[in-house]
Amino acid sequence: MTQLASPESVVGDFDGVSLSRAGTNILLTRQDDKFFANIKSTDGSTTERQIIMTTGSHHRQWVWMDTDHSRNIQALPFLYLIHQQRWIPLETGFLMPVGTSVSTHVGAWNNNCIDCHTTQSRKRRLNDQKMDTQIGQFGIACEACHGPGQEHIEANRNPVRRYQLWISGQADPTIANPARMSASRSSQVCGQCHGLWSLYKNPDEAKYYYESGFQYRPSDDLSDSRFFWVTSPT
User: Fold this and answer.
1) CA separation for the pair 151, 176 (Å, rounded)
2) Which of 26, 155, 54, 179 is nearest to 113 (CA)?
3) How many C-beta neighbours within 10 Å does residue 199 have?
4) Distance (Å, rounded) from C-alpha 185 to C-alpha 176?
């Protein structure tokens, strides 16, 4: 879902494509294995930004630009529709109330998308212009749903142990398995991304989150660290 920009990961057309949005003209180009957006603003100034990352792979793709502000990145204000092979304005690709638009400000990915499109994200905000964002892995990797895997890997280097667990049908205590959890805890593994929540319930959790990432691990009680917004059917 999230990859570093490369000839293999970028699917959009960068062959001298011209795009225009709100008075800003953008020329998409490719130089060898690198991709660029040449942006001409309404004041006449021109800026060249390198495309450094992509999000999306099945139906559409969103690309992200370098900003020269530490590890802050910025969204290109267009989405690429893979099957139709064309660019569309970013705000037309998301379901939202009339009159609103998708934010393309610097740091949008660091502040928002990173929570669910990477595994073990750490925003690490330095100040308003700089971030030292770090991640465990791009995309939704194994540990997002199964928890830390180092102990599991080390324990199962022994093939005898693996076969004993398989034959006995016992759970492996070194790894979290949503299939063996209660319905509530299993749903919470999904709910860490597929839910509406905030960290206001626990200020200490919020502080830790911005510096070191979420403390929640699969099989924990997610409600211990986050407040969920729940609406009842009417």
Assistant:
1) 11
2) 54
3) 17
4) 11
Count other Cβ atoms within 10 Å, centred on residue 133. Answer: 21
Q: What are residue 47's DSSP bridge partners?
A: 39
Asked whether 59 and 43 are in contact (CB, 8 A), the reply is no
In whole angstroms, what is the distance from residue 205 CA to residue 200 CA? 9
Those residues with Cβ within 8 angstroms of residue 161's Cβ, 6 or more apart along the chain or in another chain: 155
Return the amino acid letter for 150: Q
Residues sharing a CB contact under 8 Å with residue 118, sequence separation 6 or more, in sequence order: 2, 135, 136, 137, 138, 139
Q: Could you state, in order of their start, the residue ranges of all structural domains in the chain?
A: 2-138, 142-228
Contact between 49 and 36 under an 8 Å Cβ cutoff? The reply is yes
Q: CA separation (Å) from 187 to 141, 199, 218? A: 18, 19, 10
* pLDDT tens, N- to C-terminus, the chain (234 residues): 889 999 999 999 999 999 998 788 999 999 999 999 999 988 888 999 999 999 887 899 999 999 877 778 888 989 999 999 999 988 888 777 777 666 666 667 887 788 888 898 888 877 666 778 888 888 889 999 999 999 999 999 999 999 999 999 999 999 999 999 999 999 999 999 888 887 766 777 778 888 888 889 999 998 888 887 765 444
Q: What is the pTM of this model?
A: 0.75
C-beta separation of 210 from 124 below 8 A? yes
What the block records as the tokens of 161 is: 């142990």
